[in-house]
Amino acid sequence: MPFKMMDFENTEEREPLGYFRGYPIHVATLLAVVHAAAMVVCGLLLSARLITWLNVLPLATDEVLHNWQLWRPISYVFLHIPGSPGTILSYILQFWILFSLGREVERFMGRKFFIWLYVGLVLMATVVVVPLSFVFGPQVVADSDIVHVSMCIAFAVIYPSVQFFFSIRAKTIAALLLFAYTLYYIAQQQFAMIVLLWASAALSYYVVRAAGVGDGLNLFAGLRERFTPAPRPKAAKVKSLSRSSGGDDADAEDAVDSVDSVLEKISKQGIGSLTQSERAKLERARVSLLNRKKDRAS
After folding, report:
1. Can you tell me the distance from the alpha carbon of 18 to that of 25, in angstroms, rounded to the nearest whole number?
2. What is the dihedral of CA 48, 59, 175, 198, to 10 degrees?
């Protein structure tokens, strides 16, 4: 059953909160600005040798369990200490994921869905790491890297074939990030962080799939086509999204056919290249297909 948090008919959920000098401002935009400002503040505190202020931010399981410092399950994601140029670059990558990919998740799935997903990813550290501290000993979680990697996975579930650097697809980038962080935590013997990484990734994957969107991170998609003879080309047909006498199946096929050009444009130029009419066409097709799933489920 589709994820009830989504309201496919509410277009206001996908609109910006407002505009700043003509630029649309979404929740993801504001979060990216807050994280960037937090990095600057952490750098100034480090420069002033005010380490005590920084030490109260990480999610330290001992402090949460014994001293009831209940702000730590939230504050840890804003601890961005610019210790080296490489660290700063990693922060910039995180902020870009939130600013660009997170914004597209918000625009596609809706503002309410995005907020709940982000809150769930932030709180996942407490849900996973605190119980594991009884197994692996006291744990400390700092930074928002796992949260933003998981947001990248949510984007890849929605747009698996969108191409980025060197024509690498979104689902491949998401898989590479998962592999890189897993390898890093294995090398550091941070097994609780491995569990947190995969639990957060699973949350992003399944809540988007539960909404009936995307085909997920199926990295083996296309293998069957490579070993199967290509089908004979069919004559092109001009179809629309209007319901015809063919019933639900015909309507769903029309929906898919009508967005072929839009999906091809996304794979070549990215989601940002779509016009308002193309976004509306994509949304109508998605609603049509979801209605078909609901009818079959009932």
Report:
1. 5
2. 170
Distance CA 211, CA 214 (A): 9
Side-chain half-sphere CA neighbours of 132 within 13 A: 19
Give the residue carrying structure tokens 């078909």. 292
Q: How far is CA 146 from CA 32, 76, 161, in A?
A: 15, 12, 22
Residues making up the chain, counted from first to last: 298
pLDDT at 210 over 60: yes
Q: pLDDT tens across 48-61, in order? A: 988 889 999 999 99
No. of helices (H) and no. of strands (E), the chain: 14, 4
CA distance 103 to 95: 11
The answer for 212, left when phi > 0, alpha when psi is -120 to 50, beta otherwise, is: left
Percent of the chain residues past pLDDT 70, beyond the cut: 73
Helix (H) / strand (E) containing 23 = strand 23-25
> Contact 167/220 with Cβ under 8 angstroms?
no
Is there a contact between 64 and 128 (Cβ–Cβ < 8 Å)?
Answer: no
CB atoms within 10 A of CB 152: 25
